[in-house]
Design a protein that fits this description.
3-stranded antiparallel beta sheet, mainly alpha
Length: 194
């Protein structure tokens, strides 16, 4: 049972990481594997296979043991030397699934890129249409202003014509009584002349 637990230094050497990193994750990821023995933090060797990629060869683990000067890693070396074939087939299936997902995501990315280009073209067309409509609105506004000026001039002319017609009518009414008087006097003159 004691051989199943490694010190933080031994665990770090086997995982090829710093002992500071191991201390950092003992309260989180490695918490189920941590045990205090004689006031020392010990980590069960199953934590290696759970969170760290085991070395691929016995020689690489042996080299780590030799460089670290730690002799208590022999159980870890034996465990690494015996690859778990069920994990390998599961990992291969997961890799295939991930590769398929990557291919799908790349296709989605390509489709989204095409959609983006199409939408940018549509936005460009709509912008051109808006510009054309704005130019038409400006031209129509100028025509409306011209028509308003012409309408104002027409109304002024109509008022002038009505005033002139009223003056003529007033002058005609004033001339009519004079014509009637002349014709009356003309009649009298004519009466005396005869």
């Amino acid at each position: 049972m004691m051989n199943d637990y490694l010190t933080v230094k031994e665990f770090a050497a086997a995982a090829q990481v710093s002992h500071q990193y191991i201390y950092k994750i003992t309260g989180t990821q490695l918490k189920p594997f941590v045990k205090k023995i004689n006031k020392k933090t010990m980590i069960h060797r199953d934590g290696l296979t759970t969170f760290f990629e085991p070395a691929t060869t016995v020689e690489s683990v042996a080299q780590r043991v030799a460089t670290s000067g730690v002799n208590s890693l022999q159980p870890v070396v034996e465990k690494v030397a015996q690859p778990n074939s069920t994990n390998f087939s599961t990992e291969t299936g997961e890799i295939a699934a991930l590769q398929k997902l990557i291919a799908e995501l790349q296709q989605d990315k390509a489709d989204l890129k095409k959609d983006k280009e199409y939408l940018q073209q549509e936005i460009q067309k709509q912008s051109e249409l808006i510009d054309t409509l704005n130019r038409r609105i400006d031209a129509d506004g100028k025509r409306m202003d011209s028509l308003q000026v012409l309408l104002d001039q027409q109304q002024k002319l109509t008022l002038v014509d009505k005033a002139a017609a009223a003056d003529i009518t007033d002058a005609g009414e004033a001339a009519e009584p004079a014509n009637k008087q002349q014709s009356f006097f003309g009649k009298i003159k004519n009466a005396f002349k005869s």
